[in-house]
Amino acid sequence: MSDAGSPLLEVRGLVKDYPGVRALDGVDLTVTSGQVHCLIGQNGAGKSTLIKCVSGLVEPTAGEVLFEGAPLPVGDPNASIARGIATIYQELDLVPHLSVAQNVFLGHEHKRGPLLNRAAMHRETEALFARLGNEGISPAASVTTLRPAQQQVVSMARALSHSVKLLILDEPSAVLDDVEVDALFGVVRRLTAEGVGVIWISHRLGEVAELGDVVTVLKEGRTVATELPPDTPVDTLIRHMVGGRMEALFPDRGQFRETTVLEVRGLTRTPDVYDASFTLREGEILGLAGLVGSGRTELLRLTYGLDQPQSGEVEVGGRRLPPGRPDLAIRAGLGFAPEERKSEGLWLDWSMIRNTSIADLSRFRRGPFTDRASERREATRHLQSLNTQPDAPQRPARLFSGGNQQKAVLARWLLRSCRVLLLDEPTRGVDVGARSEIYRVIAELAANGIGVVMVSSELAELLGFCHRLLVMREGHIVDEFDGATSTEEDVLRSAVPVHHIAKAG
Amino acid sequence: MAVDTTPTVDVRARLRQVPVQELVLPVVIIALVIVGVIIRPGVFLTSDNLLNVLTQVSITGIIAIGMTFVIATGGIDLSVGSVLAAAGIAGGLLLPYGSWMFMLGAVGFALLLGSINGLAITWGKVVPFIATLAMLIIARGLALWMSEKTPISLIELDILQWFGSGRVLGIPVPAIVFVVVTVAGWVLLNRTTFGRRAIAVGGNRSAARIAGIRPGRVIFTVYVLTGLCVGISAILLSGRLASASPVVGNLVELDAIAAVVIGGTALTGGKATVTGTFFGVITFGLIFNLLNLLNMPTEIQGIVKGILILIAVALQRRD
User: Fold this and answer.
1) Interface confidence (ipTM) of the complex
2) With contacts defined as CB-CB under 8 Å, which chain A residues touch B13?
3) pTM above 0.90, yes or no
4) Alpha carbons B313 and A332: distance in angstroms, whole number
5) Reduced to 3 states, what is the DSSP secondary structure of residue A77?
């Protein structure tokens, strides 16, 4: 508290080389106690590498990191934690099946003699939740039963169970809906009031103005702008990030046709989805809005046949799909890009080519063998048509940014020539520049007659280029809006459950 | 200057791309050969001795090729040793009908037991370790029960014995069969959609399902495939011994798994190499052969083999 305003973390001339790639090329950054320092930049700009250097997970090639004026040992995560640096990564790293309290104290459990002191840990966990303004979570609950937002709070409690001076949050809002993001803002403000310095990494530029005290922009491993005030216009921020003129973010809505390509009737799987029905026409982009946990993802999974519905049916092009058979759904023309891109969409160690061809391997069969030359040719063609960068389809998917990984998933369904694409949060973890490209790609696919159902937590995105929006709330489709004429307020009002409004009012 | 430095950088970058892990075994094999030449010149490096090595490892080797596919999907098959014995006995029960019926019976029975493994794992949702552990016990019981605990003499089956100890152009038939199975396994893994799908299922099952692969089918198939390999091995083994014994094949599963693992196939699934398995099998064969030539007691072989497994796998896990 006393030294609020003093430099907490100073990063000078940080360089990190990976084989063949320079991830950081001289980054400077100064973070002050009691401030929220927003770090923005496109995917691949070096944000993640930078924070990994600070948290000790990665050893920088050159440059220095000072914490409270003294050099931080490099490549030693325990040293960073001991000095008071806590990092919450994009992918939550809680241990499933363990309780909340066990997760919070993982690795530094309280003991009484040789035995665990459960009572003390539960008590302290509760105290931490109180500090975070989230008293509702039980320390004894299994983390798998918690919603993503609550899991995030558990991660933060874990960070705070050490004495924290600097908290690094890597895209904390990516998994949260708007209401939950607000709650998270509250938590962060409490911490900064206590004198904790915060590095906030986000793709949502709107958050910068709302929460940030100071903004730093990274581009291609360099600091291109720092100490920007939070009220810097979004256009200016994007210009820094893109390093040039900003493209129109959303493409125009194309005309869709009258032919129905997908019809969903009365799909039910309790407690996630109740009696969901909708139709999709060729070339139509249909948005599925709703809070996280409202059943949007589950509805997509039911439609695709990944889960068994209790009742209801799905028709593609007039033919009924047998339930629980994604392979037959694909044959009928469906394609699915899951929300968990890394864990459900891709083989990270595989080349982009293999990731692209996997859904249509039979096509490359020549007699008993795979024709690898034509596989490579076809996959590369589709990857290139989506402008996947870098243009190195032999490289493993792991080395590509989130946006380009998403393109590999889309290329897969292009190669399969699907008729309907189900997209679950297609731009999650994708930076602004790549986002407008993903939008363009989706719009082009629709213009070619593919029907698209798209789940997103970002209303601006849904309203930006969907023809039509369905709103889900607590498992039901409750409303329908015209994409071109509705406002975020309209949709949000319909998406938020009544008791939330009551609580707010 | 720039002209001078660019090639150096190129060479370094290229060197860095050389997969060190995949070089471990070839280096070990070359080292073993050099040691062999030094300690037993004129004996070790003869075609007779090397073919002898290949013949000795063929039975475990063929099973290890099948095991590579099982492990590629993230599974394990502990039952292969017992199934090897049971398949031989099943064939032996068809003794009066001749060699070809023996072979049909042995392969058929191994396929049947492999399918039961596959069904238990996919349809019964029993984890592979437990399902095949149960089969290990069941198949050994079957072998003992069907044979009434006595070996069956196959001395009349000439064709069968040719498979076990015959030669073509001076090369032992089991060695030829092992090489053919290895090549077939390599093609299946690397050049067919089935191989790609097996690795896909092992690497990321939920992504595989979303991409339209039916993991259950692929997994069922790899256990049947291993059954086929065990059946072929049962033919070679019974032919060599000229008898079918209910007690053969003990611990073959562990030798096969060890060969697959030191070959570089990941036990977690999703990464597999038939070439590596082949080299792994050869490595064990060479060690066995060298220690034999030196008249070392068999206990020593176990110790050397175990240490080698540790070192090879530790080296491969390095980046």
Assistant:
1) 0.84
2) 19-20
3) no
4) 45
5) helix
